[in-house]
Amino acid sequence: MRRIVFPLVLLLLANQSLATASDINLNAPGPLGSLGGVFLPGEVQTSPVVLIVPGSGPTDHDGNSPMGITASSYKYLATELSERGIGTVRIDKRGLSSSAAAVENGNDVTMSNYADDLASWIGVIQHKTAVPCVWLLGHSEGGLVVLVTAQRPLPICGIILVATTGRKFGELLADQLKANPANAPLMADILKGIESLEAGGKVDVSKLHPALQQLFAPELQGFFIDVMSYNPLQLIANISVPVLIVQGSQDLQVSTEDAHLLKNALPDAELALFANANHVLKDVPTNDLAKNYASYSDPTLPLAKGMAAKMAEFVFSNPAK
Fold this sequence. Notes:
There is one protein chain. The protein has helices at about 75-85, 110-130, 140-150, 170-180, 185-200, 210-215, 220-225, 230-235, 255-265, 290-295, 305-315, and strands at about 25-30, 35-40, 50-55, 85-90, 135-140, 155-160, 245-250, 270-275. α4 runs antiparallel to α5 (about 185-200). The protein contains 11 helices and 8 strands. By secondary structure, the chain is an alpha/beta fold. It starts with about 25 loop residues before the first strand and ends in a 5-residue tail after the last helix.
């Protein structure tokens, strides 16, 4: 499974997870084997159901990653939504964890492949719960997956974009790397590599700095070429279902500027900003980088205050049509 993550997340700590007795293992058809996830029901059989789509890299259904993220953000989110009468399905991406058997190579993937998987999950959720449509919630890269999926004629109630970029991936990646002064000597090669991938070409890593050989790993370049071809502003402009854009002001990977770009591209969308929330959806002190980074590996911190309540309010104020 590809291990690229937003480059600011470089912690290397053990994976952890919270246990919830009400979680129900669930599977959906995949290309070669089943896709895996967990279902946390709402109050009744016909409660709204939100499909939570994970972010970049080997992020699992709880929002954790062997790259050092153990905040269990999706677990907290699912629990709080369940307490408010909304069911959730949290999923593992093809090639990862309980979805490992779905494909031979988790690196050989496109946005369209991920959209195929969400379509499969929507069918399973409808069969299990009898809901007329499913809500899609995408976090980080998962937001782009949701936007791509929502271009299809599927029974989607609405979408919730959480920490989702309004910039194309190449621009986002370049801006994130520029933000670290230590990358300054490498930026010329980084920008050249991104430019090549954006044009659909491969990057010869043989003469690059070792750090860039990892960034532009050959096995990841096919995915990069695909994801860089999408413009989130063009995608969101085509959405006709209700949209909620959720963004934390302490996010080190995606900014409130991204949220406003998305909102401007779809004026009917609802925008919710959370002053203290960061990229893993936890409240942290303003401009305290140490505590911001520490929250990525702290499974005891609750979800950002008011975030789940806002999502629940949005779902219930837009009943399924």
